[in-house]
Design a protein that fits this description.
- It is built from 3 helices and no strands.
- It has helices at residues 4-25, 27-39, 42-64.
- The radius of gyration is 15 Å and the shape is flat.
- The chain has one domain (4-64).
- By secondary structure, it is mainly α.
Length: 65
Amino acid sequence: MDDPINVLWTALGLAIAIEGVIYALFPDAMKRMMAMVLEQPSGSIRVAGIGAAVAGVFIVWLVRG
């Protein structure tokens, strides 16, 4: 089995690469999205972040399980 630290670094690198590609391909859309996020209440952003984290852990659990 892979070393958990290597898996963590691989996943982090992949997430950063995917985000970079999105910013490179759609810079204007990302600017609009960031402006919309600034208008949202902190609680909504927190709930979305927790939801994304749970979904990410679930996906990793499915793939690695």
